[in-house]
């Protein structure tokens, strides 16, 4: 099959490309970074250098493909995240329609349908194609962005942005705390990008008669349990994940000079996580859990932590 992978050589797209190449498929990887061209070629894939904001480029790249994996890279420089996500989703839909692509796998988030203005899944509804919407939990790899603050280089109240899928956190490096307006004993589904890549590779080869939704997770636990696993791996077993009020979180984001509309969206995302509704939907779908546990990832995290 001829398959198009978006997302450059990111945490999902790189292992996905490796899986598909290993299966003998012809893979083209879209990247906005020309410096990634050689690395893409080394994997055995064809690089397509361009931006998903360019509908003509997308249409040309998608034409003739049997399947497309479509994801939207996040931009936290955009003051209106909802508008940005919708514009990019519309670009995809326009290009996919023009290219007459018949199999599409769209990356979403496990709480995306619960956030007002954030659910762009319906932008693909009018396409005459077989579509799967992927709804993964909170990525293990989000913790990498916490390394400096866990080491104690941050300050109390300094904010660290993680992912729109829900894991936005505050870390106070001096006290070893994770904070957010979800956390503490809230139960969350965490997921390895490798398990997501496995699930996407399976879906790309299927052809469903209607749009389907697939939830993806690797392990379910409380936020404090996750913090303890990560903390223990780096010699800080006391690491906690403190639950803030929505008001305190909003005030903190504004202090960090996050644009007001974006800050409100982020608080709403975390509030949805705290509500437990994403977990209810996840359980209702009865997905098969992936193989990579947080303790496995914590070993990789600890290596990166100590090398930095």
Automatic annotation (TrEMBL):
UniProt-listed InterPro entries: Ergot_Alk_Oxidoreductase, NAD(P)-bd_dom, NAD(P)-bd_dom_sf
Xref: Gene3D superfamilies: NAD(P)-binding Rossmann-like Domain, UDP-galactose 4-epimerase, domain 1
Superkingdom, natural source: Bacteria
Sequence ranges assigned to domain NAD(P)-binding in this UniProt record: 7-127
Protein name (database record): Uncharacterized conserved protein YbjT, contains NAD(P)-binding and DUF2867 domains
Lineage of source species: Bacteria, Pseudomonadati, Bacteroidota, Sphingobacteriia, Sphingobacteriales
